[in-house]
Amino acid sequence: MPDKDIIISASILSSNFKNLEKEIKSLNFSGIDEFHIDIMDGHFVENISFGQPLLRTIRSLTSLPIEAHLMVNNPANHINSLFEIGVDIFTFHIESLDNPKDVIEMLSKTKMKKGIAINPDTEISKILPFLDIIDRVLFMTVYPGEGGQSYLSFVEEKIEKLAKINKSNDFLIGVDGGIKSETIKSPYDCGARMFVSGTGILNNDLGYLGAVNQIRKSI
Ligand code: DX5
Ligand code: ZN
Fold this sequence. Notes:
CATH topology: TIM Barrel
Number of strands: 8
CATH class: Alpha Beta
Strand content: 15-25%
Number of domains: 1
CATH architecture: Alpha-Beta Barrel
Distance between the termini: 7 Å
Order of helices and strands: EHEHEHEHEEHEHEHH
Shape: globular
Oligomer: single chain
Low-confidence stretches: none
Largest sheet: 8 strands, parallel, barrel
Bound molecules: D-xylitol-5-phosphate, zinc ion
CATH superfamily: Aldolase class I
């Protein structure tokens, strides 16, 4: 399989924050295609992670695209500030909103790409009305809230269904959670082309470059 048709995105949630600058710089040279920044508000998920100041710092340390994954109750509140910081992709949870169309319209006024994340137990019928106005769908293959959990293979049935709908590749299908060399092939075969990996890259004996290489080679 050619390795160019996939996007590998590093989730920094499990990185060593004692030396964030070094971590981001190493990841810049690891062969990843994007950074994935998990924003948690303590409401949509129990944990609190990080917000604008950290995003601004990361923006100053990389020229790679940055996806903000908003695990928050009110994603609309953060659209303007994240755009100003220079976030490239704004991915919000379908479960966080009664009326996603408003947020999608607000996002359209920025240059950010629009992503919808969907939890393992949410039906894909919830996102179908928005597929022609968004850029990517991010399937959670763990329950959102923390890194280092095990990949949930039951989500693959939904990935396959959505890939069938996406015959002309109008949007990108991604997976987030538990992705490493051992787990990447199955969602790839179902049609996913973007892969978020946290501990799979960061807690890997091969080092970041070796880890990304191994993950890429495993499809
Ligand atoms: C989970 C986050 C994921 C997570 C991925 O709430 O959205 O992005 O950090 O980490 P791993 O790859 O360790 O499952
Ligand atoms: Zn995430």
